[in-house]
Structures are given as structure tokens and as C-alpha cells.
Amino acid sequence: MKQETFTLITGASTGFGRSLALECARRGQNLVLVSLPCKELFFLAGFIRKNYAVTVFCFEKDLSVEKNCIELHEQIKRTGIAINILINNAGIGGTDYFEEKELSFYRRQLQVNVMAPTFITYLFLDDLKKNGPFFYSEHEQPNRFFLFT
């Protein structure tokens, strides 16, 4: 019997991440939703469980902290969740003038926007290779890391 697989989505509680989670659920994909601690994450998970026939796990993690990326991977592995699609969506944007922000803002922004996706991809790479997604490109060629529709 083949193990159930899951799509991991970071930054899943609001905005584009929320929309991605809803679309993946609509397509029948089991989900691992990750976001900063907030009630919206659990509201979304409850809505998805109620309206779609998929399994949803939630993890509250601040991905600007490297050890949290490692803990996320360890918790998912301990739980026995098989990740086959990774959507690195968490990010920090901004509309302020560059000089108006403190250096600490840019340090955190780089950590979330660059380092966290790199760490998470590295940590889950073996799982992605092993579990492979169930989607194929328009040309029917398997693509292990990108979803083409």
C-alpha cells in the first residue's frame, strides 16, 4: 500500500499561501500548512477539513529562525508525513523607502525570503525525490519539483 503524500506550504495562513492551500485542497492534495503562530492557520485548516476530503496538519513556526526550519523538518519526519510537493511561499515584503527600515528588518527579510526556502528545500530534498509529485507537465514529462498546469 502506497503511503499518503502531502504538499507542504509555508506562509499558508493568509494571502497567496492561503489561496494555494485552498487550490491544492480542491485538487485533492493532503496538506502540511506552516505559518507564524496565528489563529488564521487553524481556521483555514478547519475550513479545508470541512469542505474537502483531505488530511491537514498545521505547524506554527517562525522561519526567520534557522533552528525552526530544522525543527519543522524533524517534527514532520517524526510524524511520518511524506512530503511530495514543496511550496516555499513564506516571505516578507515591504513598501517603505529603503532607508526608512532598520538593518534588522533586512536581516530578517533575507532570512525568510532566501535562507529559509534554501534550508527547507535542502532538508526535504530526499523526501521530494523519494515521494515525487503526482503532477506532470503538459508534455507528460515527469517534473519532480515544479507544478505545471
Task: Specify Rg, calculated over alpha carbons.
Answer: 16 Å
Number of strands: 4
- In CATH, the homologous superfamily goes by the name NAD(P)-binding Rossmann-like Domain
Weakly predicted, low-confidence segments: 134-149
How many helices in DSSP terms?
Answer: 4
CATH topology: Rossmann fold
Write down the overall mean pLDDT. 88
Derived structural class = alpha/beta
What's the CATH first level? Answer: Alpha Beta
In helices, the fraction of residues equals 40-55%
Please write the string of helix (H) and strand (E) elements. Answer: EHEHEHEH
Distance between the termini: 28 Å
Note the overall shape.
globular
What CATH architecture would you give? 3-Layer(aba) Sandwich
Describe the largest sheet.
4 strands, parallel
Total tally of structural domains: 1
Strand order of the largest sheet: 3-2-1-4
Q: β content, as a range?
A: 15-25%
